Amino acid sequence: MKSISKLFILALLLSCTLSFAQTGSGMDKIKSLKIAFITERLSLTSDEAAVFWPVYNEHEAAMEELRLRERDEIRNRLQDFRNMSDQQIQKLMDQYLALQEERNRKNTAFLKRMANLISARKTFLLIKAEDDFKRRLLQQIRQRRQ
To answer: Concatenated DSSP letters for 28-82?
Structure first.
Protein backbone atom coordinates (compact mmCIF):
# COMPACT_ATOMS: atom_id res chain seq x y z
CA MET A 1 0.00 0.00 0.00
CA LYS A 2 2.82 2.39 0.91
CA SER A 3 4.57 1.85 -2.43
CA ILE A 4 1.32 2.48 -4.29
CA SER A 5 0.89 5.85 -2.58
CA LYS A 6 4.51 6.73 -3.34
CA LEU A 7 3.99 5.86 -6.99
CA PHE A 8 0.79 7.89 -7.06
CA ILE A 9 2.48 10.96 -5.57
CA LEU A 10 5.42 10.61 -7.96
CA ALA A 11 3.11 10.25 -10.96
CA LEU A 12 1.07 13.22 -9.79
CA LEU A 13 4.22 15.29 -9.34
CA LEU A 14 5.60 14.42 -12.73
CA SER A 15 2.36 14.86 -14.66
CA CYS A 16 1.28 18.09 -13.00
CA THR A 17 4.57 19.85 -13.59
CA LEU A 18 4.04 19.37 -17.29
CA SER A 19 0.55 20.85 -17.29
CA PHE A 20 1.03 24.34 -15.89
CA ALA A 21 3.25 27.39 -15.94
CA GLN A 22 5.15 28.55 -12.88
CA THR A 23 3.01 31.57 -12.15
CA GLY A 24 -0.07 32.18 -10.06
CA SER A 25 -1.97 28.97 -9.59
CA GLY A 26 0.97 27.03 -11.05
CA MET A 27 3.07 27.97 -8.03
CA ASP A 28 0.18 26.95 -5.78
CA LYS A 29 0.11 23.56 -7.48
CA ILE A 30 3.85 23.15 -7.03
CA LYS A 31 3.48 24.01 -3.34
CA SER A 32 0.68 21.45 -3.00
CA LEU A 33 2.80 18.80 -4.67
CA LYS A 34 5.73 19.69 -2.43
CA ILE A 35 3.54 19.32 0.66
CA ALA A 36 2.36 15.90 -0.49
CA PHE A 37 5.91 14.85 -1.36
CA ILE A 38 7.32 15.94 2.02
CA THR A 39 4.42 14.41 3.94
CA GLU A 40 4.97 11.09 2.23
CA ARG A 41 8.74 11.11 2.67
CA LEU A 42 8.69 12.08 6.35
CA SER A 43 5.80 9.78 7.34
CA LEU A 44 4.69 12.35 9.89
CA THR A 45 2.29 11.27 12.60
CA SER A 46 -0.72 13.52 13.10
CA ASP A 47 0.89 15.00 16.23
CA GLU A 48 4.14 15.65 14.35
CA ALA A 49 2.29 17.18 11.41
CA ALA A 50 0.40 19.51 13.76
CA VAL A 51 3.66 21.04 15.00
CA PHE A 52 5.69 20.57 11.81
CA TRP A 53 3.61 22.43 9.20
CA PRO A 54 3.18 25.77 11.01
CA VAL A 55 6.93 25.96 11.68
CA TYR A 56 7.78 24.81 8.15
CA ASN A 57 5.41 27.32 6.56
CA GLU A 58 6.78 30.12 8.73
CA HIS A 59 10.31 29.23 7.63
CA GLU A 60 9.32 29.04 3.96
CA ALA A 61 7.74 32.51 4.22
CA ALA A 62 10.91 33.88 5.81
CA MET A 63 13.06 32.36 3.06
CA GLU A 64 10.77 33.79 0.37
CA GLU A 65 11.03 37.21 1.98
CA LEU A 66 14.82 36.94 1.87
CA ARG A 67 14.72 35.87 -1.80
CA LEU A 68 12.56 38.88 -2.64
CA ARG A 69 14.84 41.23 -0.71
CA GLU A 70 17.87 39.82 -2.50
CA ARG A 71 16.19 40.28 -5.86
CA ASP A 72 14.98 43.79 -5.10
CA GLU A 73 17.99 45.11 -3.20
CA ILE A 74 20.81 43.42 -5.06
CA ARG A 75 20.11 41.51 -8.25
CA ASN A 76 17.99 44.24 -9.86
CA ARG A 77 20.73 46.78 -9.16
CA LEU A 78 23.31 44.58 -10.89
CA GLN A 79 21.76 45.46 -14.24
CA ASP A 80 23.78 48.67 -14.10
CA PHE A 81 26.91 46.99 -12.71
CA ARG A 82 29.36 48.48 -15.22
CA ASN A 83 28.33 52.03 -14.34
CA MET A 84 28.59 51.57 -10.58
CA SER A 85 31.44 53.01 -8.56
CA ASP A 86 33.66 50.79 -6.45
CA GLN A 87 32.01 52.27 -3.35
CA GLN A 88 28.53 51.37 -4.64
CA ILE A 89 29.67 47.85 -5.49
CA GLN A 90 31.22 47.44 -2.03
CA LYS A 91 27.95 48.57 -0.44
CA LEU A 92 26.07 46.06 -2.59
CA MET A 93 28.52 43.32 -1.58
CA ASP A 94 28.01 44.16 2.09
CA GLN A 95 24.23 43.96 1.65
CA TYR A 96 24.55 40.63 -0.13
CA LEU A 97 26.77 39.18 2.59
CA ALA A 98 24.38 40.42 5.29
CA LEU A 99 21.48 38.68 3.54
CA GLN A 100 23.51 35.46 3.26
CA GLU A 101 24.33 35.60 6.97
CA GLU A 102 20.67 36.19 7.82
CA ARG A 103 19.67 33.23 5.61
CA ASN A 104 22.23 31.01 7.34
CA ARG A 105 21.07 32.10 10.81
CA LYS A 106 17.44 31.41 9.95
CA ASN A 107 18.24 28.03 8.39
CA THR A 108 20.30 26.99 11.41
CA ALA A 109 17.58 28.04 13.84
CA PHE A 110 14.96 26.26 11.73
CA LEU A 111 16.89 22.98 11.58
CA LYS A 112 17.58 23.01 15.32
CA ARG A 113 13.92 23.70 16.02
CA MET A 114 12.81 20.92 13.67
CA ALA A 115 15.22 18.43 15.24
CA ASN A 116 13.56 19.15 18.60
CA LEU A 117 10.03 18.91 17.18
CA ILE A 118 10.21 15.88 14.90
CA SER A 119 13.67 14.32 15.58
CA ALA A 120 17.05 14.74 13.95
CA ARG A 121 16.38 11.72 11.69
CA LYS A 122 13.20 13.22 10.24
CA THR A 123 14.90 16.60 9.93
CA PHE A 124 17.55 15.00 7.72
CA LEU A 125 14.77 13.27 5.80
CA LEU A 126 13.24 16.71 5.28
CA ILE A 127 16.49 18.07 3.87
CA LYS A 128 16.74 15.10 1.52
CA ALA A 129 13.06 15.32 0.53
CA GLU A 130 13.39 19.00 -0.36
CA ASP A 131 16.47 18.28 -2.47
CA ASP A 132 14.77 15.35 -4.19
CA PHE A 133 11.68 17.44 -4.91
CA LYS A 134 13.75 20.26 -6.43
CA ARG A 135 15.74 17.80 -8.53
CA ARG A 136 12.62 16.13 -9.91
CA LEU A 137 10.94 19.45 -10.59
CA LEU A 138 13.98 20.72 -12.48
CA GLN A 139 14.16 17.49 -14.49
CA GLN A 140 10.53 17.92 -15.51
CA ILE A 141 11.11 21.55 -16.49
CA ARG A 142 14.14 20.56 -18.58
CA GLN A 143 12.24 17.76 -20.29
CA ARG A 144 9.35 20.09 -21.01
CA ARG A 145 11.65 22.61 -22.68
CA GLN A 146 13.09 19.96 -24.99
So the answer is: HHHHHHHHHHHHHHHT--HHHHHHHHHHHHHHHHHHHHHHHHHIIIIIGGGGGGG
